[in-house]
Write a structure and sequence with these properties.
- The complex is a heterodimer.
- Chain A is of the alpha+beta class.
- Chain A has helices at 2-12, 14-53, 63-66, 79-88, 127-134, 164-169, 173-176, 197-205, 245-248, 256-264, 284-297, 307-310, 312-350, 352-361, 365-399, 424-451, 454-459, and strands at residues 56-60, 96-111, 116-125, 159-163, 217-223, 229-240, 251-255, 273-278, 302-306, 404-405, 414-415.
- The two termini of chain A are 25 Å apart.
- Chain B is an alpha/beta fold.
- Chain B has a domain at 6-95 and 164-228: Rossmann fold (3-Layer(aba) Sandwich), CATH 3.40.50.300.
- Chain B is built from 6 helices and 10 strands, in the order E-E-E-H-E-E-H-E-H-H-H-E-H-E-E-E.
- Chain B is globular.
Chain lengths: 461, 232
């Protein structure tokens, strides 16, 4: 009977009820839309990070903290055996999508045709694994993104990719047909400098690289693990824009074999890391635990880091967007609280005589309290349901609007969307929160109603 | 002599508001015998409603004691009082006080819901009562679709549906025209004779006194006179 009375009372003062329901619904729409937008951002950030560095990376212990200063010294010995061990582990096997070695290194890239050089941050990848990793899209956020051909190939170790900034500095705008490449400002003419004698000698050691049609060539100089300078030639297939300026100006992606040659020369060939990409991010914890346990079991001096450690921007951005969502939800919650308290207070005042009547007939105070809380909760249920449905409808419309943007951590424009799929948890939490807030807010006037003296209530006009 | 359904002993009720003390009831003692049609009469402001509130267990005396159906009211907690009222006391109000969102049927059914009666029994009992008050055909009407007399009949049905020991009616004819008021009093009297329930109602209309088995005259909060017919 109480729900029936509550619902009929809601219909009794329709205008006020509609305004209250609308306030709750608007709160629901705001939370759903922004929540799904944040979910899309987070999924996008995760997808970018996982496509770039996988879920987990195996390093030699100490590399993560100290290895960037001397990557050659922190190489993983017999990395192929480690990869095989990971791939063949029955617990890991069903969880793993890609396992591939990688090399991180730094050095100087030079385009001696125009007498330009620049420090670079290099990554050596296996092209087929690199391509496969780029296609990871568990959350289906990049399904509409067209992935350009990287131009890398397993069988051609001389090909590579550079950041647009690096290409610009090294004068590759023309050969790579780059847009947004302003002309180089005029500088004082520098004397053509001859390569240092040692470098000349080193270059002579390299087999003469065959010219690739339309592919500009860079010479990469780095110190080997033994400390000796080394040079290799790289034919740049394309320039890829990077979100962060420092990466854009420094990135060189090359074939793993070429990176090995550059870093280890003729010495023992190692990898500085082994990247593990999983099918699903939810397997990250067990996979990491299993890897650590495997390495301990086999006495290997290796450690595992996940993508949130390798890409700290991910954590920062997730934290920031979550905080904004929380703040918006808080504001909406406060608005709902005030609206419901106001509505229910007016209702209690108008129905004081009825409260006296039902108490005289034998209702306990708790019964009166329950009546008004149910009424508040019913307003919450109607408002939250309308808000969630309207929010989802708007989200679907928005997703079909064709808007584009460049999300944080990504340089290339991508469709601006909100994440309507897998949003069940968000919708449920938003719905439940709004209903709970409405019910709790109505508790204040409900308590006031329950505390009324019967004779005073009956006298109320 | 049978045990009184209501027993007031030296009851006083003082209201203190804004530092002003107003004695609404002063040292009133009387018994209401069961199965009687009793009236509390007196001019406006004489304390009739306060006395009914005390008998109906919706107010507590400042001094003295009130026993209803043999139960000293002061001994009951707030929840126990509510339960006591729901079982033993029916109310008919001057302004009908029907719940506007419920139909006539649902208004009459409400006290049985508080007693957690099963649905089938509720339905049967409500229809019996609506028949008794002559409103079976208006059972689906809401209060705003009923006349004043019909509303009061629904209120009488609501008071009687749980077969209480006592029904209290506070000036039940005050908002009705003379003819309808007489009909309502006649109906209450008829039901009281049939159902063996005790009726206590207040009025300032001395013409209604002829209907009463017992009359308590209240003046300035005191019992000024008590007249009664012989119990049948």
């Amino acid at each position: 009977m109480l729900p029936k009375i509550a619902l009929r009372n809601i219909l009794r003062n329709r205008r006020r009820s509609v305004m209250t329901i609308l306030a709750i619904a608007v709160g629901g729409v705001a939370i759903v839309l922004f929540g799904e937008f944040v979910a899309f951002i987070i999924a996008g950030l995760e997808t970018n990070a996982v496509q770039k560095v996988g879920h987990l990376t195996v390093f030699r212990t100490g590399y993560f903290d100290y290895g960037s200063g001397n990557p050659g010294a922190f190489g993983i010995d017999r990395y192929r055996d480690v990869i095989r061990m990971i791939e063949e582990d029955p617990e890991l096997k069903p969880k793993i999508d890609v396992v591939t070695p990688t090399i991180s290194l730094s050095g100087i890239a030079g385009n001696f045709d125009i007498d330009a050089s620049k420090t670079f941050l290099g990554t050596g990848v296996e092209p087929s694994a690199y391509e496969r990793m780029k296609r990871w899209d568990e959350h289906r956020v990049s399904s509409r993104r067209i992935l350009p051909d990287s131009g890398l190939a397993d069988g051609d170790e001389t090909r590579g990719i550079v950041g647009v900034g690096l290409a610009r500095v090294l004068g590759l705008c023309g050969p790579l047909k780059l847009r947004d490449c302003p002309p180089r400002p005029a500088t004082a003419p520098a004397k053509p400098s001859a390569p240092a004698p040692a470098l000349v000698n080193l270059a002579d050691l390299e087999p003469a690289a065959e010219p690739r049609s339309n592919s500009p060539r860079l010479d990469l100089l780095a110190a080997t693990a033994a400390g000796a300078p080394n040079v290799v030639s790289l034919f740049v297939s394309r320039a890829e824009p990077q979100a962060a300026r420092e990466f854009d100006d420094n990135l060189v992606v090359m074939n793993f074999a070429l990176a090995q040659k550059l870093l280890y020369g003729r010495g023992e060939q190692k990898a500085t890391g082994i990247v593990v990409q999983l099918h699903r991010t939810e397997d990250l914890r067990p996979a990491r635990a299993r890897l650590s346990s495997l390495f301990k079991q086999h006495g290997l001096d290796l450690e595992v880091r996940d993508f949130t450690e390798r890409e700290p921007f991910y954590k920062q951005a997730v934290g920031m967007f979550t905080a904004i969502l929380f703040f918006i939800a808080l504001v909406m919650g406060v608005i709902v609280v005030f609206t419901v308290v106001n509505t229910m207070s007016m209702t209690v005042m108008e129905r004081t005589s009825e409260i006296g009547t039902v108490r005289a007939l034998g209702s306990r105070r708790a019964g009166v309290r329950a009546l008004f809380v149910i009424e508040g909760a019913a307003l919450g249920i109607i408002g939250a349901t309308l808000g969630i449905l309207a929010g989802q409808a708007l989200a679907l419309l928005f997703n079909h609007s064709g808007a584009m943007w460049s999300p944080p951590g990504q340089a290339a424009p991508t469709p601006l969307q909100v994440m309507t799929s897998d949003a069940g948890k968000l919708l449920f939490v938003a719905w439940l929160s709004l209903v709970a807030i409405a019910a709790l807010a109505s508790l204040v006037p409900a308590n006031r109603a329950a505390r009324l003296q019967i004779v005073d209530a009956l006298r109320h006009v | 002599m049978t045990e009184a359904v209501v027993r007031l002993m030296n009851v006083e009720k003082v209201y203190a508001e804004d530092g002003l003390r107003v004695a609404a009831v002063r040292d009133v003692s009387f018994d209401v015998q069961p199965r009687r049609f009793s009236m509390i009469v007196g001019p406006s402001g004489s304390g009739k409603t306060t006395l009914l509130n005390l008998i109906g267990c919706i107010d507590v005396p400042s001094a003295g004691s009130v026993e209803v159906c043999g139960q000293p009211i002061a001994e009951l907690s707030d929840d126990a009082l509510a339960d006591f009222r729901s079982r033993n006391v029916g109310f008919v109000f001057q302004n009908f006080n029907l719940l506007p969102v419920l139909t006539a049927f649902e208004n009459v059914e409400y006290p049985l819901l508080l007693l957690e009666e099963p649905a089938a029994r509720r339905r049967q009992r409500v229809m019996e009562v609506l028949e008794a008050v002559g409103l079976a055909d208006k059972k689906d009407h809401r209060p705003n679709q009923l006349s004043g007399g019909q509303k009061q009949r629904v209120a009488i049905g609501r008071a009687l549906v749980k077969a209480p020991q006592i029904v209290l009616a506070d000036e039940p004819t005050a908002n009705l025209d003379t003819r309808t008021g007489a009909e309502i009093i006649g109906l209450m009297r008829e039901i009281q004779e049939r159902s063996a329930v005790s009726f206590v109602f207040s009025t300032h209309d001395s013409q209604l006194m002829s209907h009463a088995d017992e009359t308590f005259v209240i003046r300035d909060g005191r019992l000024a006179a008590h007249r009664g017919k012989e119990a049948p």
